[in-house]
Design brief:
Layout lengths: L2 E5 L8 E5 L2 H11 L3 H13 L3 H13 L7 H20 L2 H7 L3 H14 L1 H6 L12 E2 L2 E4 L16 E9 L5 E10 L4 H10 L2 E3 L1 E3 L2 E3 L1 E9 L11 H11 L3 H13 L7 H13 L3 H13 L10 H9 L3 H12 L5 H14 L5 H13 L8 H12 L7 H13 L3 H17 L5 H11 L21
Helix pairs in contact: 1-2, 2-3, 3-4, 4-5, 4-6, 9-10, 10-11, 11-12, 12-13, 13-14, 14-15, 16-17, 16-18, 17-18, 18-19, 19-20
């Protein structure tokens, strides 16, 4: 990150406000220059949480000056110490030592609290800097057999290049379920073709201590690329790589995500991870979700680095998938009234997402949650009907979610009809349908289903009534 500075007189002498070259930082700096110190402080705080040393430096300078809050030498020095540890030592020179010698005992404790939370080692432990996505407790699932995907009718018979990246739940039975589309270039039609191909594929399941276990597996499908071009033959990917090299965060996410699954771009796995992390730090909500979800998936090996900070930033930035995960987290155990209200707010935001995966899970929660304060049959039915009107028609869980929404609304005839469709599709895929048949029996008896309908996004564990 390029760092320059502009002069700011302060009680600490010639400290400066740092200037970093990305959009969120520029917005914070614009607030600062306009004298909107509270707004600037809030923006710098969000960036500082993600290890941006320039923002940490600026919070320190503002605390010493009393901008955006009362003058606070202890917090100011704490932020400056964190900034130095996270890469901004050149901005400080010898000034930090002089500032530290002036602190009293209370101010030193305040400085230490900031460093304990935002210093380099603290952020590394949380997976904010140098995140570790590895976890060797499981042997990952592997693909055994997959049918060739069909070109969508929307392609008009033209075999144009396309890329779809999906995350699948691979059961202990080696069957794929619950597809989540992370990237589709172009989007129209190809995502549905990819979902159909993956649901009809067979996998060797992940194993733990030699026993098969359920897992989440990223997978890609490439359409219409021939010869040695690889992903570079897809125009949208080639353009994204050019923009990523120019510092575009969204393009860095696209390029990094593609490169994690395909070596044809000539980008190493380490560089792909750097692109994704850079995009996340620069405010791309989908990249933040990816980092948070990867950390969450490997939290058994590093519990403190559970991805929570990244997921919160992603949700604030508009990632519906992150909003869904945070809502599920809030609903775990015995949620308080405040947690229920926050979860409902997050689910309402996520219900308007374009993501098939997110809307399916939101509708399932609103239709079948055991918590009265969460259920919203009308919204569940609306979202589920929108799903069924879309391109993806091969996912049994979509029809099962619609059936639950009809049952929650008291329309058991429609619930039975849709549950039968879900059963037929699941049986064609060789799924275990015992729970689905149990739900059908409930609808025939005039009772709505109450309980987990789909695997929970936060844990990946299958639910039962």
């Amino acid at each position: 990150m390029t760092v320059a500075s502009i002069r700011l007189a302060s009680c600490a002498g010639a400290l400066s406000i740092a200037v970093a070259a990305h959009a969120d930082f520029r917005a914070a700096l614009a607030d600062y220059n306009a004298g909107r110190y509270l707004a600037a402080h809030e923006r710098f705080q969000k960036l500082a949480e993600l290890g941006d040393c320039s923002s940490q430096f600026n919070l320190g300078a503002m605390a010493l000056k009393g901008q955006g809050g009362p003058k606070d030498s202890g917090s100011g020095v704490g932020w400056l110490r964190a900034a130095a540890a996270n890469g901004c030592q050149p901005l400080l020179g010898e000034k930090l030592l002089a500032l530290e010698t002036r602190l009293d005992a209370t101010e030193r404790r305040a400085a230490e609290e900031i460093v304990a939370r935002y210093g380099h080692e603290a952020l590394r432990a949380q997976g904010i800097v140098e995140p570790d996505f590895s976890c060797r407790t499981d042997t990952p699932a592997t693909l055994l057999d997959s049918p060739a995907p069909e070109y969508p009718p929307s392609a008009g018979g033209v075999r144009r290049p396309a890329l779809v990246i999906t995350v699948l739940t691979i059961g202990a039975d080696g069957l794929a379920r619950d597809p989540e589309i992370l990237l589709a270039l172009p989007g129209e039609g190809f995502a549905a073709s990819a979902v159909e191909a993956w649901l009809n594929s067979r996998f060797a399941p992940a194993t733990r201590a030699g026993a098969p276990v359920e897992s989440r597996l990223p997978a890609k499908l490439v359409f219409g690329v021939e010869g040695s071009q690889g992903l570079a033959g897809i125009e949208a990917v080639a353009r994204a790589r050019e923009r990523a090299d120019a510092g575009d965060a969204d393009a860095a996410y696209t390029t990094g995500l593609a490169a994690t699954l395909d070596a044809s771009l000539g980008i190493s796995s380490a560089r792909a991870g750097q692109l994704l992390l850079s995009a996340a730090r620069d405010g791309d909500a989908e990249a933040q979700y990816w980092v948070g979800r990867e950390l969450r998936a490997t939290a058994a090996c590093h519990p403190q680095a559970d991805g929570a900070v990244w997921l919160r930033h992603a949700a604030d930035g508009g990632s519906a998938a992150a909003q869904l995960i945070l809502a599920v987290d809030l609903l775990a155990g015995a949620p308080s009234a405040a947690q229920l209200a926050s979860a409902r707010s997050l689910l309402e935001q996520a219900s308007g997402a374009h993501s098939f995966y997110v809307r399916k899970h939101v509708a399932a929660l609103l239709a079948a949650s055991p918590l009265d304060a969460v259920r919203d049959p009308a919204t569940a039915l609306r979202v589920a009907l929108e799903l069924v009107a879309g391109e993806i028609q091969t996912d049994p869980q979509m029809f099962e979610t619609l059936a639950a929404a009809y049952a929650a609304s008291g329309d058991f005839g429609s619930a039975i009809a849709k549950q039968r469709i879900a059963l037929r599709k699941a049986e064609a895929l060789a799924w275990d349908t015992r729970l689905m048949k149990q739900r059908l029996g409930e609808y025939r008896a005039g009772r709505a289903w109450r309980g987990a309908l789909l695997p929970l996004p936060s844990s990946g564990a299958p639910g039962a009534r």
